[in-house]
Each structure stands twice: as structure tokens, then as C-alpha cells.
Model the fold of this input.
Amino acid sequence: MTTTISGLTAVRAGLLDYQAAWDEQRRLHESVVAGERGDTVLLLEHPSVYTAGKRTEPWDRPTDGTPVVDVDRGGKITWHGPGQLVGYPIVRLPDPVDVVAYVRRTEELLIDVCAEFGLAAGRIEGRSGVWVPEDDRGPARKVAAIGIRVARGVTLHGFSINCDCDLTYFDRIVPCGIRDAGVSSLTAELGRPIGVADVLPVVERRLSTLVTV
Done:
């Protein structure tokens, strides 16, 4: 299913293997770079997989032999799997390319999505992604992660937001290389079931944030 929103084409790709999604990202990237198609965002779930960005340290990885896919995005190691909505925007950035500004727009999109469900989340200085601040339930907790790459002025990789995923998958790694904070989900924070099907249309409605400069 595809939807066009503010010039962006959103593609609902369902449950898609990580390698298949990576191949599709690269195909779309070539088309956008060549001017053969407009900005496109893949929205999907993955079967359970760990992916390691270029800054992943050996001690961040699982110690139990769990397979890890090494990828060319920024950031460190994370988990993707059922109950987590993943977005891969393949969008052309305006000149001059400002990667930090793009990351901030991605964070804004995710903060607004959380707010729509009643969760007050935001940024933490020096850390990417979207966080629930420290409170009486514990230290700061990440509910959405961001890891991107820009090649020839067009983005790859993107963001993930934890809806109702099994958070124990994060226990095997040092998520995003951060030891002094936790990982959470919309369901865990709000105490009611919020699935990918609930979050998907909300993300779609806010995708224009990515290209609003």
C-alpha cells in the first residue's frame, strides 16, 4: 500500500527481512539520486535482528553468539523486530546538506508521534533519538532510535519506534552503546497496548516534518 503525503510517497511494506529491506533501500536510493522518482519512505517491521552501525564497539555486541548484521549507517548497535515500527526515508536533502538538521527533524516527527498517544518524550543533550526523561520509574529511557547515512545528497536508513515489542531483546546488547539508560516502548510507558498498526497512520500523517526546512 502506498500513500502520497506532502510530496513524499509512503510505502507500507509489512513484515520484511532486513536484507530484503536493505536491497530495496539501495534500489530506491539509486532512483531518487537519478531523479527517476520522488522522496520515498519505507514503513515496515523486521523479523528479529541486531544491526551494528559503524561506531559499534566489540563490547556492545551480544556475548551469546547471537548473529549481528553490520551496516553502513551511523550509530552503534540496536535491535529490530516485531512490535517495532521502522521507517526508512529515502529523501533528497536541500543544499547545502545539513545532516544534523535532518536528524533533528526526524526527532521532532517522533516526539510529535509520542505526544499524540499521550507520552511526553523529548531529546537528551549529546544523544540521538527520542527519550522519556528520568523519573520515579527509573533513568531516562529511549523509545525511538535514529541512525542514518547520506550518500550523494539522499538519505538512507532512518528511525525506529518501539510500540509493543519484547524489550528483553535489548538485554543482550548495549543498545546504541549507552550503559546508563534504558529502553522502553509506548506500551510499557503508557500502560495500554499500542501496536504498530496504531502507530503507522500517525507516523504517515507527520512525514512532512522530514522535508519541512
